[in-house]
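Recall the central idea of this unit: under ordinary conditions, the amino acid sequence of a chain determines the structure it adopts. In this exercise we apply that idea directly, starting from the sequence alone.
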Amino acid sequence: MTTKNSRSTVRRMDAIRLSPIDGILIHLHTQSLFPSLLSPVELIRRSIPRLEDTEQKLRSFRNLRQKEQIFRVNQENGSLKQNLNATNAAPSAARSEISKVSNNGINALKGKGDQSANRQHKSTSLVKNCYAGIQMSNGLSSKHDEELADLLEEKTRSLEAIQASHESQIKQFKMELEKEHDKLVNVQIRLQEEHKLNESFQEELKLLKSDKDKRSSELSKIRNESNEKTKEISRLQKELNRQEDESSDDTMENMKRLVATLEKENTHLKILSLLHLHPPIDGEE
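Accordingly, the structure predicted from this sequence is:
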């Protein structure tokens, strides 16, 4: 019975014992797989600050270009307004001066009707000259206004071209910024997926370690049981040998006793047979 239990215990040990190949595969799986997974995760984490810095630089550059554009447009508009005001102020001053001289001449003619014809002629000439000056001033002002209008239109076209160029650059920067943002979003999604995959493998590794510890504990328990059984078998074997030795000694003693008894009985029988063969004489008795 004890021998059967020992064989059953050995079969259980062989059934749960891991082979050396399984141990090597588990070791290679845990040592070589996880570093390869963690390397791209670390690279992605390092690329995130660079993408964020690029995005911040694009925003700063866009704001700077907008401020520069607004400042330049305001400066050019201010210069054009000053030139236009100065141009408009010159004909107005000339008109005012001519009107003042004309009024003075007319009043002089009305108040001094008794003056000489020469003086009247001078006043008339002065009025004519003033009128001619007004017409000339108006012509010059109109020509100057046209030049200013052309200059303003040219400046406006130039500003519109600059604004269109800036808007095109801003649009291009915005598209690049959106692309960088999309890349950043994709990187973050990939990072989350890699993180989940890493957690899954970490959990699998924990389960493998737990299973390994459990099997090691069971194996240690079985080894202890086997050692106890071996000790028990050794003790029983010694007891059996002792009992066999004692049984052998008893058997020899019994045989000796039996032989002695048989010898006694044989001797007694011989004596009886002799007595029957040679009966005693009465006188001899």
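The CA atoms of residues 30 and 205 lie 7 Å apart.
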